[in-house]
Each structure stands twice: as C-alpha cells, then as structure tokens.
Amino acid sequence: MIPFTDEELMQPVRNVIDKVRPSLALDGGDIAFLTVKNGTVYVQLQGACVGCGSSGNTLKYGVERQLRMDIHPELTVINVPQGMEDSIESY
Q: Which domain covers residue 37, as residue numbers?
C-alpha cells in the first residue's frame, strides 16, 4: 500500500520525470507526465520513443525504477499512447 495520496505524489513524480528526461532526449525521445491515479503513474513517451522497440525497457528500467528508488517501491508506470489520453481509465 502506497502511503501517499495521488495529489501528494504529483510533484515528486514530476521531479523524477524531469530527472530522466535528459537521458531520453539523448536518443531523440521525450516523456510527458499525464497524471497519477490510485498510485499508478501515467506518462506518454514521445519523439523517438514512440514505436521504439526499447521503449518498454526504458519505461520499466529507467522511469519506473527511478520512481521506485526516489519515491516508493510499489509505484508502477503506464505509457498512454498518443491520442489515448482521454482513455486513461482503461489501462
């Protein structure tokens, strides 16, 4: 159980996203933070990350790992494909 509300997680998650953004930019990618719902972080991989075969690993071992180290070990990250932002509840 994550001991923070979604609201309390917003700023710390933004900070972590900003921390990993430069490493994604090196490969021509980017990441947008969408929201936190029920302790799950929703992001959108952008740029060269879209359609890249390594994007799943980037999400799991880059972004999610950093969130778990910096904030809480039970956080999960889900990539919301472009155009699906209104359907976050279905993930």
A: 6-81
In a domain, 91, yes or no: no
- How does pLDDT run across 8-36, given as a tens digit for each residue? 999 999 999 999 999 999 989 999 999 99
Q: Which residue has the tokens 């710390």?
A: 12
Kindly state whether residue 20 falls inside one of the protein's structural domains: yes
Q: How far apart are CA 9 and CA 41, in angstroms?
A: 9
Q: Which two tokens stand for residue 24?
A: 């994604």
Amino acid at 18: D
pLDDT at 82: 86
Considering the entire predicted model, what is its pTM?
0.91
- CA pair distance 85, 44, nearest whole angstrom: 9
